[in-house]
Amino acid sequence: MTTATVSRWDRFRESFFWYSFKRDKVAIVSFAVLLLMVLAAVFAPLLAPADPYDLAQINIMNSELPPVGMSGADPAFPLGTDAQGRDLLSTILYGTRVSLMIGFGAVILQAFLGILFGLLAGYLGGKVDAILMRIADVQLSFSTLMVAIIVGAVFKASFGNLMFGEIAIYMLIFIIGVAEWPQIARTVRASVLAEKKKEYVDAAKVMGFGTRRIMFRHILPNTLSPIFVIATVQIANAIISEAALSFLGLGMPETQPSLGSLIKSGFDYIQSGSWWITLIPGLVLVVLVLVINLLGDWLRDVMNPRLYKG
Amino acid sequence: MLAFLVQRISQAFLVMFVISVIAFAIQDGLGDPLQEMVGMSVSEEEREAIREELGLNDPMVVQYLRFAGNALQGDLGNSYFYSKPTLEVIAEHLPATLELVIGASLIIVFLSVPIGVYAAIRPQAWLSKFFMGVSTVGISIPVFLTAIVLIQLFSIGVTVNWFPSDTGWGQWLNDFFTTEGGLPSYGRGDELTHLFGTWESGFFTGTGLMHLVLPSVSLASIMLPLFIRLIRAEMMEVLQSDYIRYARAKGLSAGRINFLHALKNTMLPVITVGGVQIGIMVAYTILTETVFQWPGVGLMFLEAITRSDIPLIVAYLMVVGLIFVVTNTLVDLIYGLVNPTVKLTGKKA
């Protein structure tokens, strides 16, 4: 067991993947920043000075305190406080957690739908392909954000404000996952079309394997690298979509804020000069999305077989 | 060509049909017209009678056909909040959104073409690298955040004198930003010119234009990086092609090659992608209009959601759906016209 892990580690260290990562400063910095943010979000309950969900810890007298370094700041609140008197640093840590959860959750859902439909469309072809890809075309032409806004609006109208707030996190994963599946389905379909002409698929057919086995055990593993690339970019897109929906009031409630709803609640106070409530979470959001996008760009360069193999 | 035309148009009708079914399902599932029409004191028998009279007990298909028939005649019901036909409400709000989209499109066209072309011709220049870096960062900034930052910088809270105050224009700009409140960030201003019908334009007055600046720049900011990257990628590909090499070998001037021969072939895919992107901008108008309280259809839609104004939500869906379908079909048809090699099946993949 130990030898197997060691050899796998050695193989990884000698791979092109690791080699190009070591040589790319942007990738290293992006990865480090992302890792830091993910860890901070995961361990938010341990790191945060206060619990923003706990109403007992909030004092309204502390509302709208500026960050340290400005006049009137309280050192107990390093990034200042929001309009309800919550410590902004803690709220941002918890908010990043919510944003990341929705981002990853939505991408897992859209990867599931996209891989399933992409495989079916690409491998079976014919009517299945025509119908699935037409749906994908129409959905994409409407722009995924528009679809998400409409689905969100319908859900909010049918569940009511309070109910929607309670299950918002699952709703958002569902809405963004369903709105964005065509992106992944198209990528999968394109690589399945290329893979299914290859000899190993013919060989598997000759050996009498069933369609399902060929699709999932033989073709799917060979289409994973483009899926990996697009899934990375899609996490960034999902986080932006979530922020947009929350900003419109169709997302996370203020009692359980994500980065988007923090920006929204801060925006109401920007005219009174309290810019930090909205701009600091905004900065965190931009950095988070930017590093994921940069990693996605790097992954695309590494995994693009045309560039790699010559 | 005729087959392509027929196929594209029939597909557009199919999509419109699906949208109308979805819209009908929303109206049917969410809206209870009875609740809006009668009070609590009406008895159950009376309710049943009204229901029968309104045709709410008819089979689904009959109800849908009635809904579709009314929609085709331009009747999408009355808005609960405005108490007038929903299409009238949308017509009142549409000009504001259109002007916002026009403003943003102008910014995109006049900035993305020169920057994209420059970045393609001189890919190694530091200015090109700067533009490409900025566009990577730009893609990662959500449109509402750009809008908020613009408001913070140009509309409120600027107390720093950025411009040299010893010159006349510098002093004027400093005064403008610090004491006169900077650029407006709320609504369309009160000096609008009446054009025709419900169209009140902000394009012809100073304040109207001033109010357009920040919203248009915000809306443009989300599309600009995409267009710069697209134009650059297309232009670089064209510059590699044989006919450009031939033109160089023939000794044509660089300007003539770049701007006459290469740019022409670059713009074809850009225009078709651009057509679709401008349709997608409608989704971003909702965000932009929310930040700037811009009285367009996006803000109207969002208010309709908070007010549970179901008929207005449904009407917005139908109108926006129609705009999407029409732009996409037109873009496809134009692409088919200018590029005859496009496959008749019209598959994009």
From TrEMBL, chain A:
Single Gene Ontology BP annotation: transmembrane transport
Membrane topology: Multi-pass membrane protein
Signal sequence, start to end: none
Keyword Transmembrane among record annotations: yes
UniProt entry tagged with the keyword Cell membrane: yes
Name of the featured protein: Peptide/nickel transport system permease protein
Matches recorded under Pfam families: BPD_transp_1 (PF00528), OppC_N (PF12911)
Protein family per UniProt: Belongs to the binding-protein-dependent transport system permease family.
Subcellular location(s) per record: Cell membrane
InterPro entries named in the record: BP-dependent_transpt_permease, MetI-like, MetI-like_sf, OppC_N
Keywords: Cell membrane, Membrane, Transmembrane, Transmembrane helix, Transport
A cellular-component GO term for this protein: plasma membrane
TM regions (residue ranges): 26-48, 98-123, 135-155, 161-179, 219-240, 275-296
Domain ABC transmembrane type-1 residue range list: 96-296
UniProtKB/TrEMBL annotation, chain B:
Listed GO CC annotations: plasma membrane
Domain (ABC transmembrane type-1) ranges: 94-335
UniProt-listed PROSITE patterns: ABC_TM1 (PS50928)
Record bears the keyword Plastid: no
Entry's Gene Ontology BP terms: transmembrane transport
Pfam families xrefs: BPD_transp_1 (PF00528), BPD_transp_1_N (PF19300)
Subcellular location: Cell membrane
Keyword Transmembrane helix in record: yes
Record field: transmembrane: 12-30, 100-121, 130-154, 209-231, 266-287, 313-338
Origin: domain of life: Bacteria
Membrane topology type: Multi-pass membrane protein
UniProt entry keywords in alphabetical sequence: Cell membrane, Membrane, Transmembrane, Transmembrane helix, Transport
Family: Belongs to the binding-protein-dependent transport system permease family.
Protein's name in the database: Peptide/nickel transport system permease protein
